[in-house]
C-alpha cells in the first residue's frame, strides 16, 4: 500500500472503528489533528502511535502549529509567539531576530516530534501588508526579503528537529481582504507585482530546500481565472517550471468557502489533483471525506507518492527527556521574552 492523496481528520481523542476503516482506505494518506484531538501530551503520543501503526507506509500526521492565534496544542506545549513578533524584532535587531526565529522554529518542531507528529503546516510566508485580517500577525513582515530570511531561519530550525516544512499560502494571501474560510478572495493586482513581491519568499525557500507548499484559495484575476490551488498556471507553469519546485503540493482545506468555486467535494478533489496537488485536505466534514474516498478509488500518482515520503518525521525524543535538553530551555527563554514584552519594548 502507498500514500493515498487524501488527508482527513478525526473527531476526538481516540479513533472510532469507522475512522480506522476510513484511514485504511487506499486513498487515505494522512491525518490532520486539531485542538479537539488533544487532551494531554501522553494521550496525543498514544493517538499518533496508533495512527502510524494503522498501515504501511505509515499515514502522515500533521497539525497547524504556527504559534500565536494558530496553535492547536497548548497545555504541555510551549505557547509560541506569532510570526509578526519576529518581524518587529527584525526591525530593531536583524541578527537577533534570525537567531530567535531559528530557535523557536526548532522548539515548535522538537515538541511536536516528541509527540510523534510528522510535520506542522508552517511557516506562513504571506506578506504582512495589513490588508488581510485572516493572515494578520501570522505573517513575519511586510517586506518580502525579511519574510524570506525569517522563514528560512524558522525552516532550518524545523529541519534540525527532524521536521519537513510547508510554505503557505502560494503565491501569497497577504494582499486580499476576504477570508477564504468564509468568502472567495480575489487579488486584482498586476501579475508582475505578485511575482516581484509575494512570490519572493517562496522562491527563496524553494532554493533553500523547503519540502512542501500549500496554495491559497484565492483567485488572482489578472493571471488566471482559477483559484490558485486548482490552477495549472500557478502550480505547473509558475511553481514547478518557473520556480523549479520538486516537493509536495498540499491543497488547502477543500471545505473552505472559497473552494466551493470548484464544485462539489469529489470535483474539488479531482480538480486540485489534476492541477498539480499531490495531497488534498478535507477537514471537519466526514461525509464529504467519505465521498472523496469513493470518488478517487483507483487514483494513483507515483510521483506524488515519492514526494510524500520526505514528509515523514525523522528521529524522535521522548517528551520528558526533551525538557532536560539545554537547547529546549534556551528556546523557552526566548518565548518568555515575548510573554514579558509582546510589543517588543526590549531596549534592543
Description:
GO terms for molecular function: beta-N-acetylhexosaminidase activity. The record marks 179 as: Important for catalytic activity. It catalyses: Hydrolysis of terminal non-reducing N-acetyl-D-hexosamine residues in N-acetyl-beta-D-hexosaminides. Pathway: Cell wall biogenesis; peptidoglycan recycling. The chain is an alpha/beta fold. The protein is built from 13 helices and twelve strands. The protein has a single domain, classed as TIM Barrel (Alpha-Beta Barrel), CATH 3.20.20. The chain has helices at 17-23, 41-53, 83-92, 94-114, 144-160, 191-196, 199-207, 232-242, 265-275, 286-295, 302-308, 319-322, 326-340; strands at 6-8, 28-33, 60-63, 65-67, 70-71, 119-120, 166-170, 186-187, 212-215, 219-220, 248-253, 279-282. Strand 4 and strand 5 (70-71) form a beta hairpin. The longest helix has 21 residues, at 94-114. The mean pLDDT is 93.
Describe, in short, the structure shown.
The protein is α/β, with parallel strands linked by helices and 348 residues long. The chain is built from 13 helices and twelve strands.
List its salient traits.
single chain; about 350 residues; alpha/beta; TIM Barrel; 8-stranded parallel sheet; two-stranded antiparallel ribbon; globular
- Spatial strand arrangement across the major sheet: 6-3-2-1-12-11-9-7
Number of structurally distinct domains: 1
Please provide the ordered H/E string of secondary-structure elements.
EHEHEEEHHEHEEHHEEHEHEHHHH
What structural class do the secondary elements suggest?
A: alpha/beta
Which residues form runs of ≥5 with pLDDT under 50? none
Oligomer: single chain
Assign the CATH class: Alpha Beta
Termini distance? 54 Å
CATH architecture assignment:
Alpha-Beta Barrel
Catalytic activity: Hydrolysis of terminal non-reducing N-acetyl-D-hexosamine residues in N-acetyl-beta-D-hexosaminides
Binding site for substrate: 64, 72, 138, 168-169
Domain Glycoside hydrolase family 3 N-terminal: 14-296
GO molecular function: beta-N-acetylhexosaminidase activity
Amino acid at each position: 500500500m502507498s500514500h493515498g492523496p487524501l488527508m482527513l481528520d478525526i473527531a476526538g481523542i481516540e479513533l472510532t472503528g469507522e475512522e480506522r476503516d476510513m484511514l485504511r482506505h487506499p486513498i487515505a494518506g494522512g491525518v490532520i489533528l486539531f485542538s479537539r484531538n488533544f487532551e494531554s501530551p501522553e494521550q496525543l503520543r498514544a493517538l499518533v502511535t496508533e495512527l502510524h501503526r494503522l498501515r504501511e507506509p505509515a499515514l502522515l500526521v500533521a497539525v497547524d502549529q504556527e504559534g500565536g492565534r494558530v496553535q492547536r496544542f497548548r497545555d504541555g506545549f510551549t505557547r509560541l509567539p506569532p510570526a509578526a513578533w519576529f518581524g518587529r524584532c527584525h526591525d530593531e535587531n536583524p541578527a537577533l531576530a534570525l537567531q530567535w526565529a531559528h530557535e523557536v522554529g526548532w522548539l515548535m518542531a522538537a515538541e511536536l516530534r516528541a509527540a510523534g507528529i510528522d510535520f506542522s503546516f508552517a511557516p506562513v510566508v504571506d506578506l504582512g501588508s495589513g490588508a488581510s485580517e485572516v493572515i494578520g500577525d501570522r505573517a513575519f513582515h511586510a517586506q518580502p526579503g525579511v519574510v524570506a530570511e525569517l522563514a528560512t531561519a524558522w525552516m532550518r530550525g524545523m529541519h534540525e528537529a527532524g521536521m519537513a516544512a510547508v510554505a503557505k499560502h502560494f503565491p501569497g494571501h497577504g494582499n486580499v481582504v476576504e477570508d477564504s474560510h468564509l468568502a472567495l478572495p480575489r487579488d486584482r493586482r498586476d501579475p508582475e507585482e505578485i511575482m516581484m513581491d509575494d512570490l519572493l519568499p517562496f522562491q527563496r525557500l524553494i532554493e533553500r530546500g523547503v519540502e512542501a507548499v500549500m496554495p491559497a484559495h484565492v483567485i488572482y484575476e489578472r493571471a488566471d481565472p482559477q483559484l490558485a490551488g486548482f490552477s495549472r498556471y500557478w502550480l505547473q507553469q509558475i511553481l514547478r517550471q518557473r520556480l523549479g519546485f520538486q516537493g509536495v503540493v498540499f491543497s488547502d482545506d477543500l471545505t473552505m468557502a472559497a473552494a466551493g468555486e470548484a464544485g462539489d467535494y469529489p470535483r474539488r478533489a479531482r480538480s486540485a489533483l489534476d492541477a498539480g496537488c499531490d495531497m488534498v485536505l478535507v477537514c471537519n466534514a466526514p461525509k464529504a471525506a467519505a465521498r472523496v474516498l469513493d470518488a478517487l478509488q483507483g487514483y494513483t500518482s507515483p510521483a506524488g507518492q515519492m514526494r510524500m515520503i520526505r514528509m515523514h518525521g525523522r528521529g524522535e525524543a521522548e517528551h520528558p527527556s526533551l525538557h532536560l535538553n539545554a537547547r529546549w530551555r534556551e528556546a523557552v527563554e526566548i518565548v518568555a521574552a515575548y510573554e514579558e514584552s509582546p510589543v517588543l519594548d526590549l531596549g534592543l
